[in-house]
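User: Structure tokens for this complex, please. No commentary.
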Amino acid sequence: MPVTVPLRQTVRMISVKNLTKTYGDFTAVDDVSFTCKPGTVTGFLGPNGAGKSTTMRIIAGLTPASTGSATIGDVDYHDIPNPGTQVGVLLDASAQHAGRTGREILALSALTMGLPMSRVDEMLKLVSLTPDESKRRVKDYSLGMRQRLGIANALLGDPKILILDEPANGLDPAGIHWMRLLLREYANRGGTVLLSSHLLHEIEVIADEIIVIGNGRIVAEGTKDELLHTAGTFVKAGDMSALANALTAAGLTTTPSGDNGLRSDATPEQIGKAAAAAGVALVELRPAEGAGLEEMFLELTSGNQRDDIITQGAQS
Amino acid sequence: MSTTVVTIDKTRPGIPMARLVRVELRKLVDTRAGFWLLVSIGIITALVVVIQQWVVAAQDMHIQYSDIAQAMATPMGIFLPVLGVMSVTSEWGQRTGLVTFTLEPRRNRVVIAKLLAGVITAIASVALALVMGVFGNLAYGGLTGHKVVWDVTTLAIGGILLSWVIGLLTGFAFGMLLMNTAAAIVLFFVYSFVLPGLLEWGYETVSWIHDIRPWIDFSDAQVPLFDATMSGKDWAQFVLSGAVWFVLPLGVGVWRLLRSEVK
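Assistant:
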């Protein structure tokens, strides 16, 4: 009998508590805790190697946690009967036997879950793989087609929870738009989605709640609105040093932001006036919405790159 | 606003073993490699029978049904273990394990399903081989005019089956142990072709190997299975050598598969 819970706010479909995973001296996931609620799409954002995939594999019972726990609806993944019909998982779209056809891969999953073969055709249609394409071997699929197949495989058992690792990777813009609509509808029907991405833009487009992870630790989390809301103004000019001088001369403090821009607590009007007075032509002037998240994300990414350079230097 | 939300249903029926076995059987034949491996087993076994009859007829030799069964044991002894290796290593090499073990996270059940699928394949192979042997033996009678002798007892059929199942499961064990197709196949060939030669050489030259060889040479211990002449001592040697070369790698392999991280 299905367990019914009256208040949706109290329901935590996915809960991760103080999760840590170490490999020798390396800590891949460091004391990570978060929850995913029904009716929301939670975006797991972080640079490559931040610990997103490891966390998701632990949730799906493929990797044992060092300490802490990950449960789905308060149940350990290993204790879910016929889990494919309750939790849809896509961890790596390329992890399929290259010699099987797309259709055969779905047929094997349907057979395992005890679903009728008509469900395979429904799912192929849903992800827009033509009957012709479905009879091709997966080694001849583009990454985008593999992602579609993987999403079809995750949705096959009509689960209420979806766990998708980098599902937008390899999709073209139209594909990303399609996936956003698909997941939006899925969440609106009460489904829970946890998806990861290393691209800020993808997460911005698709997710309601965002968890930012870097070097195994959660560095920020909240609703999209909370995280994207940054006070101040973002400004960019053709001649950035002239702009910086002009703003300093006008007594406005600035910090570097985003792609070679500046962020200031001043209003757009104050900045516009200061730039006009100094005769600096602006190419961008807008409220700094989202700039804060972008700065943080760039810092995470560049932090990793700097580490790489230091390691390389030490080796040579 | 109160909304009804369905969480995880722990009372739902799990996946029955019969369904998992069907899936594993299907996975043995739904790739080109698996399909042609099975077809090759059939074709090569048939070829062995044809060549054997040809040579026998040309040289006017006298053979019995058991000789034909023994000739077929060589190709089966090579192909069935390779099948066993591939049934488990493809989950790692092709990384299908990510899906297999999320659909059935109780990995021990997947292992049992693979074992059962392997045993079913071995039984089907024995049946196919015996039928081919019947045709071979009839052809022998027709070609040479010699008396056709049906000397394979039910017991011997059981022995052949046991030996082939062990071969397949040894491949399976090595596959789980190494989780790599090429390495597991190489290990199997070293184990089944190089090792017996070494033991034979040791048997001839080193006195202590001479004494313990019957107790540690698993392939030698299986020979009496084919003509159903297993004595009590033969069984003891079969069990002991099997513990070393079959049960131990199988146990360690299963342990590794259950514990390792699926990536």
